[in-house]
Description:
This protein is an alpha/beta fold and about 220 residues long.
Amino acid sequence: MKKPTQNSTQKPTVTKGLSRREFVGTSAAAGAWVMGCPAFIRSRSPNSKLGVGLIGVGGRGRGHVQACAGEDIIALCDVNANSLKGAQKIAPQARTYQDLREFFEKLDDIDAVVVSTSEHTHAFATLPALQAKKHVYCEKPLTRDVHECRIITEAAAEAGVQTQMGTQIHAGQNYRRVVELIHSGAIGPVPEVHTWVSRAGINHADQTDLRQIGQPVKGRRIN
């Protein structure tokens, strides 16, 4: 989601009213993800907090609510009432919505939006935030298809705000080194790539599903 035409040495354009806040650039993204927090959420000044709105606050989204607890969590949005109740325990002062359209009706006190909805709805939650010139962190995948991706990329470039797509450990040095090796041709042409996952996450499958695939039933579901 990075602005395709932005030079890495340029300072990002931020939303009106944020002139006192400096946002962490791409070089700090890997370090921020070690703590599980979107890079742009980490304002450098401890006396300057961001107004954050989160869309999708169950499962992975709950982790983002916790990661943003040091900022001003203004609004929470989730179609699941139980997920909202759980997130409210972290941010009891935040206003809540079960319809993201209502969430976007009031954005004047929100600086940044975190999107952790179901994968096929990421673009629909991200685009209105960019059009309102809000900083956006969106979980992967960014969109369903190339068409949606082009629309989001163009909107991000026009908005001139900080954006980040969550790739977690893929922002770390180990994965970045692999990319360097491929791009440099050090391992030769890569004609084919295979990827897989060996287990179901405990936040996305019930205990019956885990037993059926032979996985240990540990942890707890996040509601």
